[in-house]
């Protein structure tokens, strides 16, 4: 029984982290209506940034957030403004296939650049919390997972509050709902796109710092998180941030509990069975419209 409770807690903590990563994907889709196939590669970029802050100057992954988050925000702002927006402008009113292909190409560029500069070797940041556990009356849980789960939930809540309570958040939501009407109200839609993509990368920077004490980093490290993000975004409702959080919790629970009572292979299978079921019977997701 204690083992099952521990698996449930670990599933919730990992689900919160998965939800945080998926929130970036949902934010970009909700504002720009494009699927970002470079999402996993950008997770990898964040992980390398955090790793080298730790290995080169000895900055703890959690403390590196002070540097990594603003740097990744600026990188995302620049990437959207100089690389993606020009294609978006040419695609305005069309099917948007060129933007999707652009994100696929961006994935190849980022992964091969990482392979060229950092090599294919697995790298890990072993910090004082990496192997730490917390025993709660016989229920043992990983401290890095606990930190990731709690911080992930706090960040998602903070983002929700920012989008609902601030002028910038309202401008982002207005652009996502109707870019032409937002433009008539004086909102610069392409600047909002830059900010939204910058926020996406800032979120991925936070997720990378939370993951590094638990995961290795290498050029394809983001692939598994990209797949999880697509499943979670569809499950929760693409474009819904709260849906991404709840979808992350569901996927985390399925992954952890099923692996405990059955096998890791069965857990992977069940996650995609649920994914296909949602696509067939409720394609809008839990909280999608």
Describe the structure.
- With 289 residues, this protein is an all-alpha fold.
- The protein has a domain of 202 residues.
- Helices cover 74% and strands 3% of the residues.
- It has a two-stranded antiparallel sheet with strand order 1-2.
- A hairpin with a 2-residue loop joins strand 1 and strand 2.
- The longest helix has 31 residues.
- The radius of gyration is 19 Å and the shape is globular.
- The termini are far apart.
Query: How many individual helices?
Result: 11
Number of strands: 2
Strand content: under 5%
Shape: globular
Task: Specify Rg, calculated over alpha carbons.
Answer: 19 Å
Counting helices, strands and paired strands, the structural category is: mainly alpha
As laid out across the biggest beta sheet, the strand order is 1-2
Average residue pLDDT = 88
**Unreliable stretches covering 5 or more consecutive residues:** none
- Order of helix and strand elements from N to C terminus: HHHHEEHHHHHHH
Largest sheet: 2 strands, antiparallel
Q: What share of the residues lie within helices? A: over 70%
Terminal residue distance: 39 Å
Sequence-ordered SSE layout with sheet pairings:
Elements (H helix, E strand, L loop, with lengths): L1 H31 L6 H19 L7 H27 L5 H22 L14 E4 L2 E4 H23 L1 H11 L1 H6 L4 H23 L11 H14 L4 H21 L2 H18 L8
Antiparallel strand pairs: 1-2
